[in-house]
C-alpha cells in the first residue's frame, strides 16, 4: 500500500511540474513566433514596396526559412487564397489554429486586421497597415522578452507548489 501512495505522490508532482514547465515553454515559443512573424512582415513590406508581388506568392516567400508554425501559417494563407471559394473573413484565425500558432489576443487581432483585409488598400495604405502591425508585434515581443525569465520561473514554481498542495490534500 505504501508503494501505491508513493507512486501516486510521484505522479501528482510529475504532472504538476510538467504543467508548469509546459506553460513556460509555450511562453518561450510565443516569443519566438512573434519575432519570426516580425521578420516575415518586414520581408512582405519589402516585396510590396519593390515588386508588388501577389498575395499567394507573397505568403509562400514570407514562409520560407521560418520556424515550423510560422511556415505552416503562411502556407495555409497561400493555400486558402488559391481556393476558388476563397473568403478572407476569418482567414487569419483559421490559419493560426491549423498551424498551431499561439499568440496573445492583441497580436492575433493585429494579424487579422492585416491579412483578412489584405489587398483592400493601395500600396501605401497596405505598407502603412504592415508598419502598424510590425510595431504592435515588436512592442509585444519587447514586453514579453523583458518579463520572460520571471514569468517562466513563476509558471514553473506555480506547477511545483500546486502539485505539493494537491499532494498534501491527498495524503
Give a written overview of the molecule.
The chain is elongated and about 70 Å long. 83% of the residues lie in helices and 0% in strands. Helix 1 packs antiparallel against helix 6. The relative contact order is 0.17. The chain has helices spanning 2-50, 55-63, 68-82, 91-99, 105-116, 123-170. With 171 residues, the chain is mostly helical. It is built from six helices and no strands.
List key phrases describing it.
single chain; 171 residues; mainly alpha; 6 helices; elongated
Low-confidence segments, given as residue ranges, are: none
- Count of helix runs: 6
Taken in chain order, the helices and strands follow as HHHHHH
Largest sheet: none
Helix content: over 70%
Q: What do the pLDDT scores average to?
A: 84
Brief summary:
The protein is mainly α and 171 residues long. The protein has helices at 2-50, 55-63, 68-82, 91-99, 105-116, 123-170. The protein has 6 helices and no strands.
